[in-house]
Design brief:
- The longest helix has 25 residues, at about 15-40.
- This protein has an eight-stranded mixed beta sheet with strand order 4-3-5-10-6-9-7-8, with helices on both faces. A two-stranded antiparallel sheet has the order 1-2.
- By secondary structure, the protein is an alpha/beta fold.
- Residues about 245-255 have low confidence and may be disordered.
- The protein is built from seven helices and ten strands.
Length: about 260
């Protein structure tokens, strides 16, 4: 089949050549489009995450560079607050809050870190001869005003009055006060690793009271498998030392109310 004709003015396509050229051009254009799509950078996945401020400052933010290195395509806006009522899943793509094991209709509840309270103070207050409660002021957090009463009862410690002592706006401020030698504060064990490593505080009595509540990730169950949310959930599970989230239901063995 002749595709071209040679003449005095050059080469011209035959009708068959015109037809084949049009088909080839369309095929090459589609191939070029496919190559461009395959080699284009992946679009960034945007998420807005609300987080409890204490958890964010002492656990999440120190690990944030590892999240960015693992998932450079994730574009997460982190919003922190000390107000638990502000952490509504409806306002964010996901929230990290304090919650119990009860199921919530329409929500996925992924546990991250248990809440285990331990006393902390400066090494000087702990003393080389062993810790004694006499003369040690108790430091309180207004966010958790009943923690000392619960911890003392669970530990079987008598003597200190859980109603006495200075009160601070947050657990973090109470820990800072303890590190300055003002007394003994209750801390969440999973969140004081850097303070212990730096020698700011020590745990004078190694009794930990575990709460039925813990730090959890909450998001809409219908969206849990979305690429951005799934990547964030799996990274959190790895950092918390948990199995992949879809393989593990939320369970607790404690009977404490908070």
């Amino acid at each position: 089949m002749a595709l071209f004709l040679r003449g005095p003015g050059g080469v011209t396509p035959t009708p068959a050549g015109e037809t084949l050229f049009a088909a080839a051009r369309a095929g090459l254009d589609r191939l070029a489009e496919g190559v461009a799509q395959a080699t284009a950078p992946a679009p960034r996945q945007a998420l807005t995450v609300g987080a409890y401020a204490l958890f964010a400052s002492r656990w999440l933010i120190p690990r944030w560079p590892r999240l960015q290195a693992r998932h450079p395509g994730l574009d997460i806006t982190l919003v922190t607050t000390a107000d638990p009522l502000a952490l509504s899943p409806g306002r964010f793509d996901a929230v990290i809050a304090v919650a119990g094991p009860a199921a919530r209709p329409g929500l996925l509840v992924q546990p991250l870190v248990p809440i285990e309270t331990v006393p902390v103070c400066t090494p000087a207050l702990a003393g080389p001869q062993g810790f004694r409660w006499e003369g040690k002021p108790l430091l309180h957090s207004r966010q958790r005003p009943r923690d000392w009463a619960r911890w003392l009862a669970a530990a079987g410690v008598e003597g200190p009055d859980p109603r006495q002592g200075a009160a601070f706006e947050s657990i973090g401020l109470a820990i800072d006060a303890a590190a300055s030698g003002l007394g003994v504060a209750l801390a969440i064990r999973a969140l004081i690793g850097p303070d212990l490593e730096a020698g700011r505080v020590v745990v004078p009595v190694p009794f930990a009271r575990r709460s039925a509540h813990g730090f959890v990730l909450l998001c809409e169950a219908a969206r849990a498998a979305e690429a951005g949310l799934a990547a964030f959930r799996h990274w959190l599970a790895e950092e918390a030392g948990m199995p992949p989230p879809e393989r593990r239901p939320y369970r607790t063995s404690t009977t404490s109310s908070e």
